[in-house]
């Protein structure tokens, strides 16, 4: 019963006929876009390197790509860059996962009782309004200067955002879908598992990208406050001893870490959104 | 004994401390295997009546029985199809139609095995792995009906199932529904705004008054079956249509606007 598309049935066209090939055009644009993107990246690096080498930019403040690579390599070989990287990304990812899971669970739980969600809602908004980073000194005192306080900060940065996202999902459920399921004899737990959770997934997924960078910000601030390890501590230390090249190394490494984690969430998003159209 | 009996069921709501009546006491007895249509102006309480039969709303008084067994306020006894197809967009067509079986505790694998031949037989073969948004409105309604059929209830309620479809697809779906009704011997209650549709499909048509709804008339459709497109041109068909149109016109809130409106409006 599948309807064949018209295109499959056309006869061989006469020569000289103009045939619009949209997929080829799209492919060409994609290729040119990639070339253009790489060219601009390269241009920035060359300008940066050139400007600092010829003294148009002060290399003391601006460092230079070649210096950053050299100092970065030194930090890998002789310093603790790799273990710092593992420390920072570990705290970020743990905090992100815990925040997303627990936050989503809190948001979804509001579906079960209107009274409970009504009572809780203003407190959610209030907690969301607190600048969590300002609490960092207290948290470091509470959880120590070790790994735990960084995970807690990353967790606090993400949990309310995830909860609010899941709650928006719950608020936007098609009531008729619930009605349909109930008319089929479904109990509340069936409705929850078969309608509420899956239909809230696009909302929860839409905050993953924001949350991963919030988690990273939380971890770095935690490391700034007090830490023995981590990229944040490395940057703070380098700044204090006026090793600005090393500060740049830290910034570049964090940028790469951020990009990698962003790509990770894109992959996660694809995995969770198979066969669906994304929200927003 | 009739299959589905609605005994003196009414529905009152309280709004701003004032009671108002959505449905006046209604008594209907539907025989097994009958195709019954309900027509009436918008807001006449047809959907409230259906919600009461499906157990989603409790009647203010009265009782509903299915084969003599009381089902008032209980869900899961009748099939229910709405104008919206209500397929779950994240599930494939196959996984959508098996949802009732899943709720009943059947394993997905077994449910799928049971559903695949149904999909193939009733025009959805090849679409099993597609998601609903890849299908046309008519195809989605087919999937919705197959989901209802797999639930295997003797009585199925239809609340304007083809209301959102274009005229061509609608006629196709009507013929398809008649075929299925004939094969499965289901008892059908069908709400529609379309008088042609009601006559074409039904054994009996209940005409409802405007709100608060009550049964205004019961019209027997004595057209021979099987019916096809030519049925719609028979003199008897047109006579029934005229009768029903006149009855519905009496229920219009503003009869003075009648002249310019088409036949299937009803509100």
TrEMBL record, chain B:
It comes from the Bacteria. Keywords: ATP-binding, Nucleotide-binding, Transport. CDD domains: ABC_NrtD_SsuB_transporters (cd03293). Gene3D superfamilies: P-loop containing nucleotide triphosphate hydrolases (3.40.50.300). Residues 4-235 form the ABC transporter domain. This is ABC-type nitrate/sulfonate/bicarbonate transport system ATPase subunit. It comes from Sporolactobacillus spathodeae.
């Amino acid at each position: 019963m599948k309807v064949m598309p018209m295109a499959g049935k056309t006869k061989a066209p006469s020569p000289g006929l103009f045939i619009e090939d949209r997929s080829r055009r799209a492919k060409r644009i994609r290729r040119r876009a990639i070339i253009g993107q790489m060219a601009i990246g390269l241009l920035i690096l060359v300008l940066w390197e050139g400007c600092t080498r010829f003294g148009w930019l002060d290399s003391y403040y601006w460092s230079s790509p070649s210096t950053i690579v050299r100092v970065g390599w030194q930090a890998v070989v002789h310093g603790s860059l790799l273990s710092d990287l593992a420390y920072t990304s570990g705290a970020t990812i743990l905090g992100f996962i815990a925040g997303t899971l627990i936050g989503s669970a809190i948001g979804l739980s509001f579906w079960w009782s209107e009274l409970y969600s009504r009572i809780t809602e203003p407190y959610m908004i209030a907690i969301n309004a607190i600048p969590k980073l300002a609490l960092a000194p207290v948290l470091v005192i509470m959880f120590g200067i070790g790994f735990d306080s960084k995970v807690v900060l990353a967790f606090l940065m993400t949990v309310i955002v995830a909860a609010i996202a899941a709650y928006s999902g719950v608020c936007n459920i098609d009531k008729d879908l619930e009605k349909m399921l109930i008319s089929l004899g479904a109990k509340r737990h069936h409705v929850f598992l078969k309608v509420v959770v899956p239909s809230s997934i696009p909302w929860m997924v839409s905050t993953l990208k924001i949350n991963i960078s919030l988690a990273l910000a939380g971890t770095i601030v935690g490391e700034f406050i007090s830490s023995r390890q981590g990229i944040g501590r490395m940057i703070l230390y380098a700044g204090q001893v006026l090793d600005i090249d090393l500060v740049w190394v830290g910034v570049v490494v964090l940028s790469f870490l951020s990009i990698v984690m962003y790509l990770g969430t894109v992959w996660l998003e694809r995995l969770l959104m198979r066969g669906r159209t994304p929200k927003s | 004994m009739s299959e589905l009996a609605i005994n003196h069921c009414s529905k009152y709501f309280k709004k701003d401390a004032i009671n108002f009546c959505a449905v006046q006491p209604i008594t209907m007895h539907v025989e097994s295997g009958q195709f019954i249509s309900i027509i009436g102006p918008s807001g006449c309480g047809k959907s409230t009546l259906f919600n009461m039969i499906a157990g989603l709303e409790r009647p203010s008084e009265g009782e509903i029985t299915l084969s003599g067994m009381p089902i008032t306020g209980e869900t899961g006894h009748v099939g229910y199809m709405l104008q919206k197809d209500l397929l779950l967009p994240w599930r494939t067509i196959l996984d959508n139609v098996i949802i009732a079986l899943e709720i009943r505790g059947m394993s997905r694998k077994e449910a799928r095995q049971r559903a695949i031949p149904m999909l193939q037989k009733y025009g959805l073969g090849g679409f099993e792995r597609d998601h609903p948004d890849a299908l046309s409105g008519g195809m989605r309604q087919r999937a919705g009906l197959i989901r209802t059929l797999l639930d295997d209830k003797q009585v199925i309620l239809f609340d304007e199932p083809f209301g959102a479809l274009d005229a061509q697809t609608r006629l196709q779906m009507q013929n398809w529904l008649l075929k299925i009704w004939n094969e499965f011997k289901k008892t059908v209650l069908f709400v529609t705004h379309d008088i042609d549709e009601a006559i074409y499909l039904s054994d009996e048509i209940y005409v409802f008054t405007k709100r608060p709804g009550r049964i205004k008339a019961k019209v027997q459709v004595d057209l021979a079956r099987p019916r096809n497109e030519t049925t719609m041109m028979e003199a008897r068909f047109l006579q029934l249509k005229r009768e029903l149109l006149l009855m519905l016109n009496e229920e219009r809130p503003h009869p003075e606007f009648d002249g310019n409106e088409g036949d299937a409006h009803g509100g």
